Amino acid sequence: MRRPHLLIIGVAAIAASILIGVVTAIGLMGPSPGWPGGMMGGFRPGGGGDIGMDRAVGIARGVAASYPGGGLAVDEVIEFSNGYYASIRERSTGIGAFEILIDRATGGVTREPGPDMMWNTRYGMGAGGMGGMMGGTHPVVATMPVSSQQARDIAQRWLDVNRQGATADSPDPFYGYYTVDFEKDGKLVGMLSVNGFSGAVWYHSWHGTFVQARDLGG
Predict the structure, then answer these.
(1) Tens digits of per-residue pLDDT, 60-90?
(2) Which of 6, 16, 93, 98 could form a disulfide linkage to 123, CB 3.0–4.6 angstroms apart?
(3) pLDDT mean across residues, the chain
């Protein structure tokens, strides 16, 4: 008669141990070279001052220049109401390396949460071909099973359901995934990412309202 209760307790204990393991791993990782702000960072909604676009661009360029091994450049910086977003690319391949967030009040830098850390097979948590904690085990390759056009189609289908009237732009390739800006009435309003192996969609819910963008042709 006690077996069902013991089973429930056992499952709960396993789940708790997994959760503790993940939290511990995240805490132990800490800041890494080229990973501004460590794993989860401290990105906060804007308020109480603004560093401005020019300074945000300078900060992003500093991050790209200081990455171990060099060879990186800033592709674009976008200002949202909650802060600044920057895309860092490899000069030699044109493939996205990683994405960062810049605090609009302090200029503090963090790695963008979500796909950049979980799906990035070269510069993310799963660097070295592991694909991250939520992306599965995937190789570090420039060409992914999900093509750019397929990623755009997947993004558009998601938008048709969740952001009616929005249109997906051409995807920006990163290692393991694509990031897709989307527009409405001719104006950028947000972005999402599409996993290059599974086609899973991850909406970037942390940006807030679009303000302006600066293309740096990185």
Answers:
(1) 999 999 988 889 999 999 999 999 999 999 9
(2) 98
(3) 79
Please choose, from the candidates 169, 190, 196, the residue with its C-alpha nearest in 3D space to the C-alpha of residue 95: 196
Distances (CA, A) of 13 to 26, 133, 168, 200: 20, 21, 43, 29
Reported pTM: 0.75
Which tens digits make up the pLDDT trace of 130-162? 334 444 456 676 689 999 999 999 999 999 999
| Long-range residue pairs from 6-13, CB within 8 A, at least 24 positions apart, any chain | none
Q: What's the pLDDT at 137?
A: 53
Residue ranges of domains in the chain: 32-113, 132-210
DSSP assignments along 63-113, one per residue: HHHHSTT--EEEEEEEEETTEEEEEEEETTT--EEEEEEE-TTT--EEEPS
The 10 Å Cβ neighbour count of residue 105 is 14
180: which strand partners? 192
Closest alpha carbon to 93 in 114, 66, 110, 75:
75
User: Is residue 45 within 8 Å of 171, Cβ to Cβ?
Assistant: no
Residue 139 vs residues 8, 92, 168, 174, 175: alpha-carbon distances, Å:
37, 19, 27, 13, 9
